[in-house]
Amino acid sequence: MIKRYFDVRPGEARNSASGFITLFGIMAAHALLEVARDALFLAELPATRLPAIYVGIAVLSLAAVKLRQRSLLRFEWRSCLAFLLVDFAILTVVLWFFARDGATWALYALYAWPAMFATIVITAFWTFMGRLFTIAQAKRLFVPIGSGGILGAITGTALARLMVQTLPTPTLLLAAAALLLAAAGVPRWGGGRETGGGIPPDARAVNAAAGLGTDLAVIRARPYVLRILLLITVTAATATVMDYLFKSRAVAAVPAAELPRFFSTFYLSLNLASLLVQLALVGWLVRVVGVVGAGMALPALLAVCCGWFLAGGSLLAVLAGRSVDGALRHSLNRTANELLFVPLPGDLRDRFKAVADVVGQRGGQAGAALLLVLFTTLGLDHSHLAALAGMLALAWLGLAVDLRVHYLNVIRHVLDDRRQAGRVEVHELHVDALEMLVSRLRSDEPDEVTGALDVLLETGHARRVPTSLLDHPETAVTLRTLAALAAAPDAAAAPRLEALLRHDAAAVRLGATQALVAARAGGA
Fold first, then answer.
1. CA end-to-end distance (rounded Å), the chain
2. Closest residue by Cα to residue 204 from 74, 79, 73
């Protein structure tokens, strides 16, 4: 069970440990910043000011992402990440100096600060991890490395919960800065050198120098990538409306003096739930329903919670919706989204992630903010906001359903292109790829059938090969089917195997003998 989640092999320990510890510190600091942001801002200013800040964050993110891309190009990853962490630590201390006196502009800056931190530092961290590991390694190692982030978030919110009992809330900013400084030393002295992630330096230079219009043109020409971008945009919009609905209801129900304790306790509970989901649910659900199917869980549950609120659920329904979002978005939904990127070529993946941050994540947030401004201007109440969130969640669900066909087409392309064979994790095909391979066993093209059989045998899924293929007219198909039956014996196939003992081809007779021995041994 432990190896299933922490399958770190020889030569991978140094980079894995460095990533785990660095992400632990980053997410612990981010959790402290979030608690301080919500408690200080909402204690002094009304929640109706939040939509304007969402728009501002989107605008600032446009410059931040290109700055991050150029930093990734110019510096070796360990130095660049350490530099970013030290910079953010220093600026957090500066922000503390002004926010402790309640300066209005500092409160606005503080609210935007965790979002900018996530746009630059957290995304840069995962970009660096992508360069350190092959895709096959990443699918194994991102689970233990990602658990460091969840544990860091739990530690940060638990620390915030303890600190707000006896210390002023702005002190959380100093604790966050200290954690960032401590984390800065880990990649610089503990991380290994990057392998390049399969992306040539000249390709990185082109990506970094490209403008947003060029990036969008590249994405617009690829239906699969465009649909992922739309999905991310609607996801961000839904989360923004739910977050605003939650905070506006919380401010109305919780006294200002109790907000630090309320937010620290609530976020701690969410992070604990997220860890449980990451360890107990994510891997199983992806295996059972596939990548796109796993991504449908969150919007479906959010739509249910919005319906509950509209039916009279009040604050409890809002808390449930925000809890579902907090527990699943950074565990199940993030994992599903990351797996959607896996089939993409490395250069396109890096370029798309940058655009996804600006146009998808922040663009969706800004679009939702403009809707919120309209709603507050018209004087619409929380029921209308819940209806908006519910409609966005249903749109999100519809996009996920539509995406599945395009995702399977991309999987088909990867399986067809032998040049991309090294990008496939050979022993951990998920349900979508398996369905694609099994469907190819019914093809009229022998080469397509044998290719699918080769992959199923190589990946240890011999049980998915039907015994009816023993009747296939092509000898190559028959031989591979016999190999599958030898690896996964089926007693019911014994009569067909006995008939093949009289086949004209010696290789078929030998394969039938081996499969028949295995079938009878299994039956005994």
1. 30
2. 73
> Cα–Cα distance between 449 and 354 in angstroms, integer?
38
Query: From CA 355, how far away is CA 483, in angstroms rounded?
Result: 46
C-alpha atoms less than 13 angstroms from C-alpha of 71 in its C-beta half-sphere: 23
Token pair 């390694």 is found at: 137
Residue 87 class from Cβ within 10 Å (0-12 exposed, 13-18 middle, 19+ buried)? middle
pLDDT tens digits, one per residue of 364-413: 888 888 898 888 888 888 888 889 999 999 999 999 888 877 777 776 66
Three-state SS letters, 449-508:
HHHHHHHHHHCCCHHHCCHHHHHCCCHHHHHHHHHHHHHCCCHHHHHHHHHHCCCCCHHH
Q: What does the DSSP 8-state code read for residue 279?
A: I
In whole angstroms, what is the distance from residue 307 CA to residue 390 CA? 7
| Ramachandran category for residue 367: left, alpha or beta (phi over 0 → left; psi -120 to 50 → alpha) | alpha
Would you say 22 and 183 are in contact if contact means Cβ atoms under 8 Å apart?
yes
Q: What is the mean pLDDT of the chain?
A: 79
Tokens of 366: 């800004």
Torsion 429-434-440-441 (CA) sign: positive
Query: Residue 288, class by beta-carbon neighbours within 10 Å (0-12 exposed, 13-18 middle, 19+ buried)?
Result: exposed
In single-letter form, the type of residue at position 12 comes to E
